[in-house]
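The protein record reproduced below.
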Amino acid sequence: MPQSRTLSIGMAGQKDSMAVAYVAPDLHAEVSSLGALGTRQCDIAQLLRKMPSTSQHLMFVYEAGPCGSWLSRSLTKKGHACWVVAPSLIPKKADDRSTTYRRDALQLARLRRSGALTPVSVPQVADEALRDLRRARADALRELKTAKHRLKAFLLRHGYRYQGKANWSQPHIRYLRELVLPHPAMKTILEEYLQGIDAAHARVERIEASMLSLLESWRLKPAVQALMAFRGFQLVAAMITVSELGDIHRFEHPRQLMTYLGLVPTQDSSGPHQRLGPISRCGNGHQRWLLIECAEHYFLPPKISKELSARQEGQPQAVRDLSWKAQNRLHLRFRRLLARRLQRNKAKVAVARELCGFVWALLRSLECYRTSAGGATS
């Protein structure tokens, strides 16, 4: 769009109201504040009427937050450009400790005019819904884990310890069901904890069943099926990866994806000295953890198992070749790192970083991403 006729509009606020400011593209123009407006559709229409009639293009910008991306989608449908920026990517002065919505809106408009902001990708509605479903499954798993910890802590306080080989196996559950406690109150607590564990299990199973049923109508189903051809990626792991990464074409190089997931080492170098620290751990923590767990499978020698062969049925030969290449390269990498006496978890993270590159190459080659609208660069 012509920069000389673009009006930069900054918005900052909460769920019920937001402060709005705008600035003309002229570098000498002052930033003007429009005060506070509501966040309903009629308020957005009122905001558009307040814009100067001399401007032909409106560029809105606001910080990503708990209110989601509905405002960006609404403005985009009306024919206007809208950026959602991550708060961590907004330039700020080190001594600036005064924050108000009005000042934030003024600053966003000023930074947008100067080109100092970087937008994040706004997912499509269906993609965001599948991603939220995945995150609901993660919440259910955390609640299940907490319920199990509470039960074990309760029994440990009273001196009951399971002597079997594996916790939460069928023998362990049978042991808990048949446990005789000396007081009726203790038996009630035990039963309530067991009921909570069963309810959490059922919730996880319902969400996974919903994920499976919604996969059939999802536009990125081919990406999920192709990723399942890789070792370590079954249905849930593949759906999580595809939904969390979003539009893969916004990553022009695999290193950008590695940086996005926080798998690259930090660096503190000066002069001729190069000092590399631990991984940055920025970005999507759950997806980073998932890739590290999938990387554990590449410690074993390359092999097309019966299960993997079934998942690869119907996939193009190029996908199978890339899967086999990943197995050979990552297994060799894993063994070499361990031979150097590198700590196993560090070796696994290094393998997960290379696995990122194979996932990037696979998803970038799929047609389902090319036929959909691309997202913004993040």
User: Anything to note?
Assistant: The first strand starts at residue 6 and ends at 13. The two ends are 20 Å apart (CA to CA).
